[in-house]
Amino acid sequence: TGMTTLDPGFGNTASCSSKITYIDGAAGILRYRGYSIEDLAVNSNFLEVAYLVIYGELPEPAQLKEFSDKLRDNADIPAEMSAFIDAMPRNGHPMSLMASAVNTLAAYYDDSVDPSDDAQVELATIRLMAKLPTIAARIYRNSIGEAPIGPDDSLGYVDNFIRMTFGDNAASGELGDLFSKAVDMLLILHADHELNCSTATVRVVGSSQADIFASVASGINALSGPSHGGANQAVLEMLEEIRDSGISIDDFLERVKAREVRLMGFGHRVYKNFDPRSKEIKVLASQILDRDENPDELFELALKLEAAALEDSYFTERKLYPNVDFYTGVIYRTMGFPTNMFTVLFAIGRLPGWVAHYREQLHDPAFRIARPRQHYIGSGERRYPGQG
Ligand code: CMC
């Protein structure tokens, strides 16, 4: 009706112009601010990439040090917030708890909630980046009934998160270094992905002039669903179900084709050839999981499942390929993260992207409130009964 075009799921609608991330879905290209993710994954580190995504340029060494120092200085969370996190159901899903905690940041830091004040937005940016790992680790420690571990300012961003999570049980030596590098690389590969569901959500919420904490909390909630970030958890649960039920891979794929279940970790709205992140992550998974003679059974299963799907015309005709979430879970699991923490790791990685989009939108000359239209298909005018 009228002048509007129906576009379910916004599959064909660009709602903004952006300088942050370039994707060519047909060619499998993903670049942040012009740099390919393959290049960044090998040569950079997550903090530098976060800076690049948020501020637009790779930092000079002094800028990176300043950024890193600010994050260290702000890594603690207020005692009241710790008490609030501790009071939430400890067996609740960490994504639910994390979104709730982030939502309250505006209440603790009302000096950084004004979107019209760049200095306040910058302060909020630092606070979010600095505190999200601390919040996430506290939620995890509570979930396993262990005392929370506060930030250690002698450690880098990723190592500090690992230490707050696993404490003395963190892998050490060569294995510890390998895990730390792997988490760093996975965070890089998740740092931004243009207008995915959660980032679009952050922009929509921010478009009403809501503060950045409220907007990012909304992004965390959007990420939690199994069609989006929750897929990394869903993949692992799927692999475990296949293993435990003893169903053959062929029979499982028949169930997928009969539309009883989706093949989690497969398919993407934009990538119709391959997901460049999944290629990198598969290599990482083999580095981590093929280290010794004991092959990881879920990784082996994932490899077989991928190979079988890629030979099946149902998947090739629909251009369904493994996405970023297909192999991340098996890696996180080997590191000791429980399944329900996988999407939390995605959120920590995606935070720079959310923040960058919120900030870019504020300075977009075309900035206005997000307000999609609809096609009305309900009944025509009716009279209230009994009114003659
Ligand atoms: N398993 C089986 N069939 C699928 C799958 C799948 N994973 N994904 C899409 N299809 C089929 C779908 O049924 C449809 O078939 P038909 O045309 O016969 O009806 C066709 O492929 C097109 O699917 P669509 O639902 O229109 O695709 P979409 O762009 O709306 O959805 C998606 C994209 C990622 C939500 C979807 O592929 C999916 O649900 N995948 C599984 C969940 C997943 O891995 N999500 C992670 C996405 S990547 C990063 C992230 O956001 O976390």
TrEMBL record:
Keyword ATP-binding tagged: no
Keywords: Acyltransferase, Transferase, Tricarboxylic acid cycle
Name of the molecule in the record: Citrate synthase
One GO molecular-function entry: citrate synthase activity
Family the entry assigns: Belongs to the citrate synthase family.
Species assigned in the record: Nocardiopsis alba
Catalyzed reactions: oxaloacetate + acetyl-CoA + H2O = citrate + CoA + H(+)
The keyword Transmembrane belongs to this UniProt entry's keyword annotation: no
Active site: H268, D325
Domain of life: Bacteria
